[in-house]
Amino acid sequence: MLIFAVILALIILLVAFFPKNTPKPITYEAKISGFTSEGPYPIVGVTMVDVFNVTVQNTGKTEINNMNLTVERLINQTITTVGSFDYQYENFTLKPGEALSVRVDFLLGLDEMMSPNQSFLAILRTNGIILDERYL
Question: Which residue segment(s) compose the domain that 124 sits in?
Fold first, then answer.
């Protein structure tokens, strides 16, 4: 019985003080540092284009792969995807401190452009994780 208690005590001590090789979770630090619109203007007939310029920046110390930038149109609580740039198909990497400017063209009819209560939302993601959002 004493031998069992000593062995059990040694196992508990080994488990409690043995260093664990648990990997640290990767934290991504990136932000949308700029989100502007050049304003809607006509291109043909009643078709309008709104050009968005979105600048994203890696503010962390880790490279970020599989970036996804989406611009969504919000009208009276309804979300409509404006444009989507999915860099994972290009194996895009944003290095620490690096910034990237992206242009998103959104084509729609004049009546859609004049919708009241509309705003726009840029969302920056990697691997399904939302890194930043910016409203315009």
Answer: 29-135
For residue 125, count other CB atoms closer than 10 A to its CB: 19
Contacts of 90 (CB under 8 A, 6+ apart): none
Q: Is residue 96 part of a domain?
A: yes
pLDDT tens for each residue of 67-112: 888 888 887 767 766 655 543 334 567 999 999 988 888 777 777 7
The answer to the question of residue 19 being in a domain is no
SS3 sequence of 36-76: EECCCEEEECCEEEEEEEEEEEECCCCCEECEEEEEEEEEC
* Contact (Cβ atoms closer than 8 angstroms) between residue 96 and residue 60: yes
Residue type present at position 113 = M
Q: How many domains does the chain have?
A: 1
CA-CA distance, 25 to 124, in Å (whole number)? 20
Q: Considering the entire predicted model, what is its pTM?
A: 0.72
